[in-house]
Amino acid sequence: MKIGILGGSFNPITNLHLLTAEIVMDELKLDKVYFEPVNRLYEKKGLIPEVHRYIMCSKAINQFNNKNIKLGVYEIEQDHIVKTYELAKHYKDTYNSDIYVIMGADNLEAFDKWRKIEGELVEELFSEMKIVAVSRNGYNEQEVINNSEFLTKYKENIELIEFPVVNNISSTIIRDRIKNKKTIKGLVPNNVDEYIKKKELYNGDI
C-alpha cells in the first residue's frame, strides 16, 4: 500500500488543498491520502483553535467525495509539537506501507530552515520516506535540488509533481479576503464557506 500524508495548518482548508491531494494520488497511484491538521501547540500567527480547523477539514473532505482521501487525527491528539518524521513513522508503522510526504515545492527552497526544525530526524525522513514536492509558481525545484548537497543525496526519494493549473490560492489569501469582507466563493468548499460565516471566523487580526 502507498499512503500520502498532507500535513498543514489548514487555516482554512482550500479547494487547492483538496485538488493537490487528488492530483498527487493520481500521478503516483497512491491508495490513500490523509490530511493531518497541526495541533494547538503549533505557533503561527492567526491560527484558530484546532476544533474549527478539524471540522472544516472534515466538511471539505466529505463534500469532495473521494473515499480514498481521509482525515487523520494523530497530530491533533498529541500533547506535543509533532515533527514530520514522527507523523510519517506513525503511518508507516500503523499501515506497514510506503509513505509519501506531500508538501509545496517551496519547502525545498526553504530547506535549511526546515532542517533546523526537524533536527537529526530529517535524515531519517528523507531516507525512509518519499518526499513529494508539488510545484508552485516561480519555483525551479530541480535547480533547488541540484544546488543542495543534502537534497541531491536523497534525490531518488524526491518526487516532483507539476501542478496543472495556476497554483496561487493560499489560506493567507482566504483569511485576508474574509477580513476585508470579500467573497471566498469558489476558493473553499461551499460548506466550509458556510461554516466560516456561521462561526464568524477570521474577522479579526490575521
Low-pLDDT ranges: none
Largest sheet strand order: 3-2-1-4-5-6
Number of strands: 6
Main sheet specs? 6 strands, parallel
**Share of helical residues:** 40-55%
Number of helices: 11
What is the CA-based Rg, rounded? Answer: 17 Å
Beta strand % = 15-25%
Decide which structural class fits the backbone: alpha/beta
* SSE succession: EHEHEHHEHHHEHHEHH
Return the average pLDDT rounded to an integer.
Answer: 91
Based on CA inertia axes, which overall geometry fits? Answer: globular
First-to-last CA distance: 40 Å
Task: Describe what you observe in this structure.
The chain is α/β, with parallel strands linked by helices and 206 residues long. It has 11 helices and 6 strands. A 6-stranded parallel β-sheet has the order 3-2-1-4-5-6, sandwiched between helices. The longest helix has 15 residues, at 50-64. The chain is globular. The mean pLDDT is 91.
Task: Sum up the structure in keywords.
11 helices, alpha/beta, 206 residues, 6-stranded parallel sheet, globular, single chain
Any chance you could write out the topology, listing elements then pairs?
Blueprint (H helix, E strand, L loop, with lengths): L1 E7 L6 H14 L3 E6 L12 H15 L4 E3 L2 H4 L6 H12 L2 E7 L1 H4 L1 H8 L2 H8 L1 E5 L6 H6 L2 H5 L4 E4 L9 H9 L10 H10 L7
Parallel strand pairs: 1-2, 1-4, 2-3, 4-5, 5-6
Helix pairs in contact: 2-11
Summarize the structure.
The protein has 206 residues and is of the alpha/beta class. The protein has helices at residues 15-28, 50-64, 74-77, 84-95, 106-109, 111-118, 121-128, 141-146, 149-153, 171-179, 190-199; strands spanning 2-8, 32-37, 69-71, 98-104, 130-134, 158-161.
